[in-house]
Amino acid sequence: MDTITxxxxxxxxxxxxxxxxxxxxxxxxxxxxxxxGWILSELDAEGQPLRxxxxxxxxxGITQKMLTQCLRQLEADxxxxxxxxxxxxxxxxxxxxxxxxxxxxxxxPLWFWLSTNIERLEEARxxxxxxxxxxxxxxxxxxxxxxx
Length: 148
What we know:
Blueprint: H1 6-13, H2 18-31, H3 36-45, E1 50-51, H4 52-58, H5 64-76, E2 80-85, E3 91-96, H6 98-116, H7 118-132, H8 139-147
Helix pairs in contact: 3-6
C-alpha cells in the first residue's frame, strides 16, 4: 500500500463540501468503532452471504441489538447488502458490497500491523500504567478525578 501524506489528504479534503466533510468524519468514526471491522471481516470470511444468526455467533461479544444497529448503518453507508427472502420464517442474509470489500482491503493492513506490533503496544501500556494510575489512598486526588 502506498503511503498517503498529510498534504495529499488535505488536498483531497479541500475539494469536499461542508456536508461531505461531515459525512467523511461520521463514516471514519463508525469505521473506527468497536465492531465494524470485525463484522466486515466475518462477512468476507466465508465468501458467501451470512444469515444474521451466523454472524451473531461469529462476532463474539456483540449483542443482538448492537449487531442489528451496526448492520443497518453499514447497509445505509453502502458497505453491506441485506437480502430478505419472503418465506416462512423469513430469511435474511448479509453480504459485502464492492464498496464494503474496498473498505475491508484498507482495514486489513491495519489489523496486520496491530497483530505484528502487539507486544510493543503491551510494553508501552505497561510502562505508562504507573504514571497514568491514580495514587492509592489519596482521597483528594480521587475526588478531583471523579468530579471531572
